[in-house]
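Risk register update: the risk of archive-format incompatibility is retired. Evidence:
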Amino acid sequence: MNRRKLLKYTGAAGTAMWLNPQLLFAAAAGEMITRMIPSSGEELPMMGLGSSATFSRQAGSGDIGALREVLQTLTENGGTVFDTAPSYGDSEEVAGALVNDLGMQKTIFWATKVNVAPRGGSADPKAARAQIETSFKRIGTPTIDLIQVHNLADIPTQLGVLKELKQEGRVRYIGTTSTNADSYDYLADVMRKEPLDFIGVDYAVDNLESAKTILPLAQERGIAVLVYLPFGRTRLWNRVKGKEVPGWAAEFEASSWAQFFLKFVAAHPAVTAITPATSKPHHMLDNIGGAIGRLPDKATQQRMIEYIDALPMA
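Archived output:
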C-alpha cells in the first residue's frame, strides 16, 4: 500500500492505532462496488451507514466527535448512503448539522422516513407533511433523495403524501420499509400495486425470510433494496464471539466477521445498498471492506449459511 492510500484509509478514522492492518488492506484493495437504482439507472455505492442503535445513542449523548469521523470515513472511502428516521432519537438532526458543517451536502444520499400513524391506526396527512418538513429543516437541503413510509404504516395516506412530494420534485425517490416477516405479505402487495422506487428490509446470513419472496419480487418489479440489520442487531456477533473467521473466507476477500456477514448480503443481486449502524470510525472502515473485492458465489453462500447455522445460539 502506498502512502497516499494509507492516509486515505486512516485519516478519517482519527488514529491508525484503532485499525487492523488487514482492514486497511481490504479497504485499499479496490473501489467500492456500486449497484443501480432500477427506476433511474443511478448508481449507488453498496455500503452505507445507518443511524439507529449505537449511532442514535451517541447522537443523544452530546459527544458527537466520533459521529463526525464516522461520516468522514464513509464519504472519504466512496460511500454516500445515510439512512435515518425522525424516530431515531437525535440522529437525523445531529447528522444534518454535521453534514452541513463538513460541506457534504452534495455527497450524502439522504434516506429518511415518515411515520405519524399510531400503531395500527391512521395517519393525519397534515402531521405527515409537518414531520417531513422538519426533516427538510434538519437535513438542510431543498431536495431529499429518498423518503420511505416507516414500517408500512398507513400506506394510502403517507405514501400518497410522498407521491405528491415526488411529483413536486422535492423528493427524488419514495418507498416503504418493513423488518417484520409477518408483514411481508402486505409488503409484497404494496410492491405490486404502488410505484415504489425503494424498499427497506432485513436480511442476514441467518435471516433469509426476505429472500424467499420479497427480494425476488423487488428484482421482478424493478425496485431498489436497502438492507437493514445485516448483523441481526447483536445476534450474529453473539454467535461468533471468540471464534476466528474461517480460513476459506479469504476466497471472497473477507478478513473480518463484519465483512463475512456483509459480503453474504451484498452477494444477493437484488440488494442495492446495506446500511449497518455504527458510531465507531474503525467499524465503518471495516464495513466498507464488505463492499470491496470479490463476493461469494451461490455455492459459497450456502456454505456460509451452513457454517453459521451450525454454531450454537447465544
